[in-house]
Amino acid sequence: MSELKVFAEGAPDSPVQQLTDKSAMARVLAGAGVRYEQWEASAPLSEHPSQEEVIAAYQPDIDRLMETEGYQTVDVVSMVPDHPEKAAFRQKFLDEHRHSEDEVRFFVEGQGLFTLHIDDKVYEVLCTKGDLISVPANTPHWFDMGSQPRFVAIRLFNNTEGWVANFTGSDIASRFSRLD
Q1: Range of the domain at 15
Q2: Tens digit of pLDDT at every position of the chain (180 positions)
Q3: Is the pTM of this model over 0.85?
Q4: Do residues 107 and 165 lie in contact, with contact meaning Cβ atoms separated by under 8 Å?
Q5: Domain for residue 176, yes or no?
Q6: Considering the domain boundaries, does residue 174 fall inside one?
Q7: What are phi and psi of 30, to 5 degrees?
Q8: Has residue 175 been placed in a domain?
Q9: Which of 31, 35, 119, 166 has the largest count of CB atoms under 10 Å?
């Protein structure tokens, strides 16, 4: 189940707001400048869909964002619990960082925890199947896929080189919860 928890940045154990209603989550996140929406496939997916099949199933929404937001490339990333480099990939995203472009992820399957540090608040967004989140450019954040990750996600990029992180050097991420 998708969930949003909002914290004061200095109080990682006491959320000031906790929501599971996706419409309410979208309103709160929009107030912080974050896009959060739900997509549905235009066609059923096979058990192990190819990148092309996944993109085709969500093509209308992908095209809409590419047109309105100027994204240049799209791809599909998958992670499974028996991936030999899962621990290294998880560690790569756990520290607070920024990107010079929006970080856009749509969860076709599985889940992931995006945590955004905006002004004096921290927003923990547990994204699950059907959720799209767009972390605005230059927003400090971190991501946890869990110790046994399982997800398929569509990624959209402005930068044709893909994901480029600029780490903040802050230890704030270590004070907040992880996915498991």
Answers
A1: 3-167
A2: 999 999 999 999 999 999 999 999 999 999 999 999 999 999 999 988 999 999 999 999 999 999 999 999 999 999 999 999 999 999 999 999 999 999 999 999 999 999 999 999 999 999 999 999 999 999 999 999 999 999 999 999 987 666 688 999 999 999 999 999
A3: yes
A4: no
A5: no
A6: no
A7: -60, -35
A8: no
A9: 35
Q: C-alpha angle with apex 176: 170 to 177, nearest 5 degrees?
A: 140
Would you call 37 helix, strand, or coil by DSSP? Answer: strand
DSSP-derived letter for residue 81 is T
Find the distance separating the first CA and the last CA of the chain, reported in whole Å.
14
Calpha distance 148→5 (Å, rounded): 22
Please give the full DSSP string across 104-149, using - where no structure is assigned. Answer: EEEEEEEEEEEEEEETTEEEEEEEETTEEEEEPTT--EEEE--SS-
Q: How many domains does the chain have?
A: 1
User: What is the rounded distance in angstroms from the CA atom of residue 8 to the CA atom of residue 157?
Assistant: 30
